[in-house]
Amino acid sequence: MLKTEEMGVRLDLSEAEQAFQAAVREYADEFVAPRAAELDSLKRFPIDAMREMAAKGWLAIITPEQYSGLGLGHFDLVLLGEELNRVCPSTGVSWSVHSSLVTSPLITFGSEALKEKYLPVLARCERVGAYCLSEPDYGSDAGGLQCRYQEVEGGYRLKGTKAWITNGPDAQLFLVFATKDPAMRTKGISAFFIDGETEGLSIGKKETKLGIRASSTSQIFLDDVFVPTENLLGEEGRGFHIAMHTLDGGRVGIGTQALGIARGCLEATRAHVLENGLDKHQSVQFGLADMAVQCDAARLLIYRAARLKDLGRPHSREASMAKLFASEAANAAARRAVEIFGNEGIFEGSIVERLFRDAKITEIYEGTSEIQRLVISRFVLK
Ligand code: CAA
Q1: Is the domain of 373 the same as that of 252?
Q2: Do 106 and 226 have their domain in common?
Q3: Is 167 touching ligand 1 by the criterion CB < 6 Å?
Q4: N or C: which end of the chain has fewer CB within 10 A?
Q5: Mind listing the pLDDT tens digit for each residue in 138-192?
């Protein structure tokens, strides 16, 4: 019989978490929301917000205090992520890649020397981080990646191309996954931290995207790049495990981004409906009701996954469920929001037009909906 998983985790917020949530909401409303449309229109990386958040310690929420962090948990990442993404998903993903995808594996798998070298630098935003797993021919099948490394005196040399790299054009620190031999598949992969100014590393053209236009994306080219031994992350050959372990947390992050988008759509639509006297129409009422259910259900799944992660308990299944449900909910909510706004919802400058475009990528990056279904179904069929 299929085992029913008990929740087994707290879903309420402690007083400290409520205070943190209030602080990040105030910052998002006062400083991120007013700049979001312009950054989107200019396709400008939100470096100001990244620096402001660094000054508050918010680029290092999960970083232990001894490395200039706040020493909080993944649940706090969720609290900040929801508020940020509600008003600006471009800022949300730029922050999430830096503070979760790059920072988290360094905390979990980094040597003492590597942590001392890079965690404070990331905390202070002296370098923006990028996570380089995907390649032009290997996105969903991450285990097939072709970027090669070979051992040389004092370190390694890397050669290959990474694709769709979020933060790529604005990053100065790259977490790169490469293989000793593609025939070894997942067992041949190792992870390396590479400084942006290293000889042989170059950044492709900044891509123009459907949504999250203020976040930057590019290819990364590695042409015989030397990486010193101390910049290997974790053990050699454990890179795929590191990538997947990190993505479990990252998927909670993208689920949170999607939740933020859904809530942004709900709030904007509610205000629009009340301002324009549309609240007596039952179809509009039902639309708002559906969006409210989507937000709450997504939040419950995300809170569960984040609490499990903070407790050090397995959470791959829960992270994939949260990401799958929330990303599909965000797209449904955005579609409904634009429909209720009507003509006003399709013009540039309307928040729902932007959130509608921003929602799509949440079903694609950090594992497509198909990949999430694959991960979940493996647990169902175990
Ligand atoms: N945590 C730790 N280890 C894990 C793991 C996890 N969640 N999942 C798998 N592993 C380990 C397995 O235990 C196994 O280890 P052993 O060899 O020691 O037994 C090894 O990894 C291989 O696992 P699988 O056999 O399951 O590997 P697979 O080839 O079947 O791939 C997959 C599984 C789920 C399809 C995986 O390739 C995947 O997640 N693909 C999607 C890639 C992805 O999400 N890319 C996102 C790019 S980053 C991004 O998008 C950032 C951004 O821009 C914002």
Answers
A1: yes
A2: no
A3: no
A4: N
A5: 999 999 999 999 999 999 999 999 999 999 999 999 999 999 999 999 999 999 9
